[in-house]
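Box 3.1 A note on notation
Throughout this textbook, protein chains are presented in two layers. The first layer is the amino acid sequence; the second is a token string describing backbone geometry. Keep the layers aligned when reading.
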Amino acid sequence: MASPPFSSGIFGLVKGSDGTRSRSLLKDATELYVSEPVHTRSEVAMFEELAAQLLKVTALQDRIRIATLLADYSEVPASVMRALLHDIFPVSSAILEKSKSISEAQLLALVATASPSHLEMIASRKNLQPSVVEALLARMRTDDLPALVGNMSITFSSSAIRHLVENAHGNPRMARLLAARMDDVQDTDLIDLFLELDGRGRRRVIQALEIAALREFAARRPLPRVPMPDPEKVATLARACLQRNTQAMSLILSSLTGLDASFLVQLLADSGGEPLAICLKAAGIDTGIATRVILFSGVEDTRNYYDVKRLVDLYEMVSLRSALLLVDRWRGALPSAKRGPAYVSQTQAGTPVRATGSGVSHSEKPAEMPLVRRDRA
């Protein structure tokens, strides 16, 4: 009986090959292997044996070519796939990027030992299994998490969202990627990330605050009393605005709101201006002085007409109750001082219930905000 075509081809490649030829033999065998849609067990075993013997002595460019060929092939032996996945990044990335035949077990094994570059490549794969997502969350560095957050083909659990939100403080890129996720990240999850968000994300938070304020009103909870600001301090604030004295402005606003002066400097320098507008509303400052503060704040000499109008409209639109909810949140724990702990998977943590301290789950009511009585400054 004649030998199968693949076996004959392999025997022809092996026959008479010298040391130099053996380095490219595996590439030639791979090209021959992928040229046939299906293979017998003996052919698969022969290819596995060749790979086991020759992969270590095959040149880098040939290994990249082998990985590229096998990435589009469905019948890749498990041992060959494992060897390519655990190869150096140029080789493994070629197969990680395109291959659809990598099993969940192979990905989990790779995550356990992979370099940060490998982890980022895995995180960008489409439709990752939940177990692989949890393994990535446990191993990835905070600076690399945006690669996973930006993968819109996966859905995060509530505990994973909490972990990501805690690690997004001070990381605007990740915060904005979280705000772009409409299916698994709720508006209330983003409240503590208000300063890191862009305009779109901040609109989501303002909407969540207004809903929370309506619920407080419906529950007949009294609105915290905001005393009229001291006229002398307001006049001093107006003069500081004309002088563009950010330090003086922050000190006066600190005395009116109870927020730290350094935090107020951050609000005054914010290019978007939404945090400052909400802070001014919570402080009980009238529209005229608020407009002046908005005009002479920010990173430029003065804000342009459209920015000032947008922020004054926000100041007038946002309710006092929702503004107080956000400022009370800032007063209790400044986001810039928080850093997230290491991820604990649901299987380790038990029942996956999101803690109320860092957000509200999809089925829970918002955590009741403390009622703060403000004394006159």
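Residues 1-7, 334-339, 351-367, 369-377 have pLDDT under 50 and may be disordered. Residues 199-218 form the longest helix (20 residues).
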